[in-house]
Amino acid sequence: MKIKITITTLFILAIIALIFTIGLILPKQREFVKTAEFKSVPQKVFQIEPKNFNGYWSRTFEPTSKGTKVVFRDVVIIENPFYRVLSSIFVDLDKTMEIYMSNLKTKLGE
User: Fold this and answer.
1) Residue 51 confidence (pLDDT) above 60
2) How many domains does the chain have?
3) Cβ partners under 8 Å of residue 70, min gap 6
4) Listing from the earlier edge strand, what are the strands of the sheet with 55-63?
5) What is the pLDDT of residue 28?
């Protein structure tokens, strides 16, 4: 019984060490950029301010001949190697930005 507990403990420690090592290899900073063209004028496009993240976000709205060019740029900085691994696996900011663009177009009736 003691051998099984020892093996299980070593296995768990090995997994934790592997996750930590992978986290050290992953970059601390990840950048995502999405661009879309909207028919609406810039006054109808609203700006958001994300919360609960370390990093910076910019939302650019430029008038064009067809409406508005929207550029979303998210830069996420993750210091903790464990969270870097988890965010790489479970948080798809690229997909989140696509969904937000789609929802924004729907909200604007485009």
Assistant:
1) no
2) 1
3) 35, 36, 37, 38, 45, 59, 60, 61, 101, 104
4) 29-38, 68-77, 55-63
5) 80
